[in-house]
Amino acid sequence: MLKVTSIKNGIVIDHIKSGYGIKIYNYLELDKADYSVALIMNVYSEKLGKKDIIKIENNIDIDFTVLGLIDPNITINIIQNEHIKEKVNLHLPVRVEGLLKCKNPRCITSIEKYVPHIFHLVDRKKGEYKCEYCEEVYKVEVDYLWNC
């Protein structure tokens, strides 16, 4: 039987869609960490069926915007003295800058490299974002994020 103990101080990223845990682990570069990190995959969950969990025995700075784009159902638990100090429920961000890239060749961002790529959420259910400049609409999928 697998046993992963609680952490004293750090962060638990919970309710990750099964299979996305390794992508988040790699994105956060946790393989280079000099503190304890546990990536637990395919854990049984009543809500999700299966889920991934990441436990980090350290308080690190995490961009919740990126995690919200990857999986808006993620829960972040800030642990202090083995108790949950704060719980953060993620969601799709309303505005995203610098994480997505507009692929429209007529967009100003394709011509002027100094112009930041800015997108606004237009459909939360579909996960669609619109470019601020050319109004091209993109459905955000995890594979799209890794190719930006």
Automatic annotation (TrEMBL):
InterPro entries xrefs: Asp_carbamoyltransf_reg_N (IPR020545), Asp_carbamoylTrfase_reg (IPR002801), Asp_carbamoyltrfase_reg_C (IPR020542)
Keyword Zinc appears in the UniProt entry: yes
Cofactor, free-text remark: Binds 1 zinc ion per subunit.
Residues annotated as binding Zn(2+): C102, C107, C131, C134
Pfam families linked: PyrI (PF01948), PyrI_C (PF02748)
Keywords: Metal-binding, Pyrimidine biosynthesis, Zinc
Positions of the Aspartate carbamoyltransferase regulatory subunit C-terminal domain: 95-139
Occurrences of domain Aspartate carbamoyltransferase regulatory subunit N-terminal (ranges): 2-90
Cofactors (names): Zn(2+)
HAMAP family: Asp_carb_tr_reg (MF_00002)
Function of the protein: Involved in allosteric regulation of aspartate carbamoyltransferase.
NCBIfam families registered for this protein in UniProt: PRK00893.1-3 (NF002063)
Subunit details: Contains catalytic and regulatory chains.
Name of this protein: Aspartate carbamoyltransferase regulatory chain
